[in-house]
Specification:
Number of helices: 21
Order of helices and strands: HHHHHEHEHEHEHEHEHEEHHHHHHHHHH
Protein name: Signal recognition particle 54 kDa protein
Subunit structure: Component of a signal recognition particle (SRP) complex that consists of a 7SL RNA molecule of 300 nucleotides and six protein subunits: SRP72, SRP68, SRP54, SRP19, SRP14 and SRP9.
Organism: Datura stramonium (Jimsonweed)
Radius of gyration: 26 Å
Number of strands: 8
Distance between the termini: 28 Å
Shape: elongated
Strand order of the largest sheet: 3-2-4-1-5-6-7-8
Subcellular location: Cytoplasm; Endoplasmic reticulum
Keywords: Cytoplasm, Endoplasmic reticulum, GTP-binding, Hydrolase, Nucleotide-binding, Ribonucleoprotein, RNA-binding, Signal recognition particle
Helix content: 55-70%
Bound molecules: guanosine-5'-diphosphate, magnesium ion
């Protein structure tokens, strides 16, 4: 997917004139890619309509080069922003408060990952000092209680359920009452599902909700259900007041475009994603990295993991600190180049590094790319500390550029090319500004 969207945008930037035909071709390509990522057709269509409105073609036709370039960025930014907008229902979900009893009910089809996610959700809060508890109100699936019991025991979380009682409403109410008396502040009700969306299931959900009066109902969705996401989410929303979404199995092949459908259908935000079968494979949902991943613009969180692997631990806080402050200096670029050369098998790793992939490191031309990086580093070796530590490209006057070229035995145009590369990367990396820096070990502990 990422490939085809970047390709579409790339194609457009190669076109000398961006007219309606070029824009349409680009948007068609993006449409195809988003559909492949399971984004609902209607959402994609609305988005492209909006983008056409935003992009003023008359302006484009009249524009000179500079304006055209601004417009290209504008289009990719517009796609990005439109997708972010779809994922933002405009209001946050109900957030339970520590120390104050809240009831959270999980709904979703069988196999979507409810029981697993209930435990992950409980465990996540328990680690933050909450007193969670689990109630198994699934009397439909044989072994449902055993599964919850096993998960809960492993995580040392109190649980409630029954092997004999067949009324899910009664179990749910008894469980919630029991844990309210025990001063639990997060009472999680796991419910049953069915393979299909059927009336009996929705009626059961309605009754459990009516009896337990949950503060929050979370709809759990398997990311691999594809285009079915919208209808499924809507069906649940129509019987219970869904207030948040959790998308599971994001570790699989699915790009997760169904999440957009679920938000649109429930008018509720995605709050977490499941990224594996284990208890701690659970992440707070963040719109921008999710959309980046959907678009293949580079996965920031994956990228952060790579930084952890590649950059020696003791250097990280400083580098990350600098990046989060928005200071992408030539020295940082130099250090990154050093790391890249150290990294070994060039290739897929680069699809993770925003900006480093397509242009600097085209696939199949890794040798040339390495030579180029080494050339750049030679030129940077002829720079002064002042030049290396500045994040202001204006410092690079003609006389400095000539001096660097002479000092490194390279051509002036090569130094200029490197400075262009630096500016391009600096622009991309400026997105790191304001990034939350994970503390040492935080990432690997998860
Ligand atoms: P339920 O029927 O909705 O309660 O679903 P379960 O919690 O029983 O999960 C169904 C299957 O999906 C189980 O095998 C889980 O281990 C698996 N599962 C749940 N969440 C994830 C996830 O985020 N990633 C992966 N890979 N598997 C998951
Ligand atoms: Mg279950």
């Amino acid at each position: 997917l990422g490939g085809s969207i970047s390709r579409a945008l790339q194609q457009m930037s190669n076109a000398t004139i961006i007219d309606e035909k070029v824009l349409n071709e680009c948007l068609n390509e993006i449409t195809r890619a988003l559909l492949q990522a399971d984004v609902q057709f209607k959402l994609v269509r609305d988005m492209t309509t909006n983008i056409k409105k935003i992009v003023n073609l008359d302006d484009l036709a009249a524009g000179h080069n500079k304006r055209r370039i601004i417009q290209q960025d504008f289009i990719s930014l517009a796609v990005f922003n439109e997708l972010c907008k779809i994922l933002d229902p405009g209001k946050p979900s109900f957030t339970p408060k520590k120390g104050k009893p809240s009831v959270v009910m999980f709904v979703g089809l069988q196999g979507s990952g409810k029981t697993t996610t209930c435990t992950k959700y409980a465990y996540y809060h328990q680690k933050k000092g909450w007193k969670p508890a689990l109630v198994c109100a699934d009397t439909f699936r044989a072994g449902a209680f055993d599964q919850l019991k096993q998960n809960a025991t492993k995580a040392k979380i109190p649980f409630y359920g029954s092997y004999t009682e067949s009324d899910p409403v009664k179990i749910a109410v008894d469980g919630v009452d029991t844990f309210k008396k025990e001063n639990c502040d997060l009472i999680i009700v796991d419910t049953s599902g069915r393979h299909k969306q059927e009336a009996a299931l929705f009626e059961e959900m309605r009754q459990v909700a009516e009896a337990t009066k949950p503060d929050l109902v979370i709809f759990v969705m398997d990311s691999s259900i594809g285009q079915a996401a919208f209808d499924q989410a809507q069906a649940f929303k129509q019987s219970v007041a869904v207030g948040a979404v959790i998308v599971t199995k994001m570790d699989g092949h699915a790009k997760g475009g169904g999440a957009l459908s679920a938000v649109a259908a429930t008018k509720s935000p995605v709050i977490f994603i499941g990224t594996g079968e284990h208890m701690d494979e659970f992440e707070v949902f963040d719109v921008k990295p999710f959309v980046s991943r959907l678009l293949g613009m580079g996965d920031w969180s994956g990228f952060m993991d790579k930084i952890h692997e590649v950059v020696p631990m003791d250097q990280q806080p400083e580098l990350l600190q600098k990046l989060s402050e928005g200071h992408f200096t030539l020295r940082i670029m130099y250090e990154q180049f050093q790391n890249i050369l150290k990294m070994g098998p060039i290739g897929q790793v680069f699809s993770m590094l925003p900006g480093f992939s397509a242009e600097l490191m085209p696939k199949g031309r890794e040798k040339e790319s390495q030579a180029k990086i080494k050339r750049y580093m030679t030129m940077m070796d002829s720079m002064t500390n002042e030049e290396l530590d500045s994040s202001n490209p204006k410092l690079m006057t003609d006389s400095r550029i000539m001096r660097i070229a002479r000092g490194s035995g390279r051509q002036v145009h090569e130094v200029m090319e490197m400075m262009e590369e630096y500016k391009r990367l600096a622009k991309i990396w400026s997105k790191m500004k304001g990034l939350k820096i994970p503390k040492k070990g935080e990432m690997s502990a998860l």
